[in-house]
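EI: anyone free to look at a 230-residue chain?
SC: sure, send it
EI:
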Amino acid sequence: MHGARRLFARLWQALLADTSGGPAIEFALVVPAFIALLLGILHIALIYLAQEGLETAVEAASRLILTGGAQTLQLGSGSSAYTGMTASDFKTAICNGISGTDSSGNAVTYTSALPPFLSCSRLYVNVQLMPAGCTNPTIAAPTFTYTNGVLTSTGTSYGNSSCNGTTTSNTGLSGSQNDLVVVQLIYLWPTVSAPLGMNFINQANGNRMLVATSVVTVEGYACATGSTSC
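SC: here you go
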């Protein structure tokens, strides 16, 4: 028994003195935190990439209104022809591009503005018209409403005005020269709760709302062919 105890004591002392497994233990302790940090950085980078793509898209979209292209583009043919983009047309122009006839009667094509890594099904467009004389425009991101996780209302519109505390509904955009127009692109970016307590979700269903806003003053533009005023 005495010999066995001495042997056990020598083995225990040798085990305590053995540091050959130290790097492996340190690696096991550090790597999970390092991987968590990398995942958090990746999530942030993807969100910034999506935001930058949305900013580029809103600049191109607002230019359609700035130059009068959205107001004067003639679409359709025959008895179904009409002048000026509707809300659906404007979103189509952003996502896929659109073709029609400009104010001079020439065929024109506007290319898509949305980057390929953003999906049109997750994009929402809000355009507010602030007529001349508006001293207190309301510019805020629309409020999305959910019922049991299903998006039921986005609060977006096309051409409505919110000025001096009063909201005016329009059937379509009618921005004229010197009118102030606010264009907002809202995108629901799918994300998750990142490690280390970082939570990027601010909407239902694991999404983060990204908003890009452009405010323009409409330039002078020629009325569409056959129109007496615009």
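EI: The two ends are 107 Å apart (CA to CA).
SC: 👍
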